[in-house]
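Forwarding the complex inputs:
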Amino acid sequence: MIADVREALQEVLGPVSEPVLLAGGASKEAWAVDAGGERLLVRRAGGGVIHRHTLSLRHEFEVLGAAHEAGVKVPRPLLYIEDLEGREAFVMERLEGETIGRRIVRMPVPERLPLEMAAELAKIHALEPERLPFLEEATIERLVDEFDEVGEPHPAIELGLWWLREHRPPRREPVVVHGDFRIGNLVVDESGLVGVLDWEFAHLDDPARDLAFGLVRAWRFGADDRRLGGIGDVEPYLERYNELTGFDVRPEELDYWELAGNVGWAIGCLTQAQRHLSGQERSVELAILGRLGAEVEYEICHLLERQGVT
Amino acid sequence: MSERPTPDELAEAIEEFLAGEILPTLGDHRLRFRMLVALNALGIVRRELTKLPPEDAAVQRELAARIRASDVPAGTLAQVKAGVEERLRIASPRYLERYQ
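Prediction (whole assembly, two chains):
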């Protein structure tokens, strides 16, 4: 298979080094390859999609292009390939740095990392939606549909959804959002934020939702006391974001969307397990998420308690 | 509560992983032999599990439906949380320590 991928890549890129399949990313393959003196990363479709609103690689490539032009720190997109050994793929620059969340929360990162994250989000949220007409608007209802398709009773998720229905903040004009902006999808080194990866969940949404996604406890990778992705505090992050955008997002909105992020991930755990159970992609890693989702449900209960629910 | 994957579905996933992904990589014949013995033992566990009565999800189903209908009297969260805690004691007991 490596030889086939290499041959297919050589047809479009010229001579390339032996491709190395990198770990991580259940629904997409990532191949490291060098060509023409450049370090490249090939993102290729894999066994399935995480949910049905995942962008195609063609659209993800377009989003990456728009972000790159707007000066967002992203790997430079190079080439879209409609058929790379039977699957679509694209080629981009391979950034140097750490992406594994568990390692990032343990390494010395500069104090300004939260501010840099805020600055990238501000740029992303200023992207022109007209330029990316295929992006859809996400709603809480869409989440409910995905949950109902699983068809299992989960009272904690229901309670989270109930609270979200009852406490909707005033509607903000939807903007282009990354959709998965958290530690684990960022390249980080000792000097700070190197790049924003994994744009497959980009869509139109309330900017506060994107801003709060990185607060979800599962994405703190064990460093629970640092609410922003296990790496820092929320206050300077929110303050910088508001300075740059003028959106004046309130802390209560972050609380709301942090809960929504947890509800979304609790449902995500169930749909991932379904991919295994349905036979779409047999994997012990996917299977166990069906049980580990209970961790996220516990966090939902914890956050609801803090909102005064009994 | 009928949690998915069920115990047998989890054991099946482990069996597929060991037989499909690990066994073919084992060069040492003693390790191969012991892996086959382990898979045999796992097969016994799976057949044993099929003798357990299926768990009843009726209470959870009713509670979930009630909350969906926005019928959430005081005390609902405490009831829900206790149920999640019970599942966590099986699925990930150490996770609970993170809230102490």
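Residues 7 and 52 of chain B are 10 Å apart (CA to CA).
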